[in-house]
Amino acid sequence: MKTYEYQVLRYLPDRVSGEFVNVGLVLFQAESRFVKAGFIRSVSRVSSFFPGLDGRNLQRRLRHLEAMLEDYADRLNIDRQVRLEKPTSLESITNRFLVKDDTALQFSEVKYGLDDDLELTFGELYDRMVENYTPEVSEDIRTDYDVWKKLYRPLFEKRNITNRLQTHKVTTAKDVIEFPYAWKNEIWHCYEPVTFDLKKADSVKNKVYRWVGRLDELRTADEPITLQLLAALPTDDPELMAFVLDKLDNKVFGSATVSVVKQQEAEQFTQQVQEEIIEHETK
Fold first, then answer.
1. Where are the domains of the chain?
2. CA distance 46 to 29
């Protein structure tokens, strides 16, 4: 039996939300110099989870990455006199072709297995990890965008609020943070749809911690804002919901005041926003 390594390639457009789709797989076995890579042929499934995706660009990048890895695998097998330096790990290979940075394409951590038939193993792993993989989100509210589209936008549109909103960018010491839905009276009021209604508790907690990190950056911003997270919460798990609210609700990050809007408060919340906008416009 041979020990092999593999990594899954993920499309992760937003580090804060943490939502991703598996789009490829690379497998490596050191002694036999076996390298095999495979990536999705169609990006339609990815587009269904991430509206606004530039599918043509993603497909082009995947094809380019696949071609480079296939060429590397061919040269590694042909040149056994080792003009190519023998790779010692899968990461030493994948890091050649995809640098760990802020790109939406990210390789997972390296995982290991034992088998003799590496071609068969690759096919089974690819089917399980890529072809048959479904992103870990609930059926009704699958993504942050679904929170907006299915839960909050209909209420905003009913009260004629949507056409009064605009994008607002907040400049911090190290970043520019963009909020897609905002309006201004004395200060900017920003709204961000986000789902914490994920299947695994660890996924919810990791997403909360990523949000806390993002909000910490607002401490370095000069302008005051209010940020309200238009949330889908894990209502079936009171302990987990309490964790989300403890970390994110009614918090102050520098000049930013942050609160969480719960699903059951959505109707009342949008009515309040409408009243505040009308009051501002009639001054």
1. 2-131, 144-281
2. 29
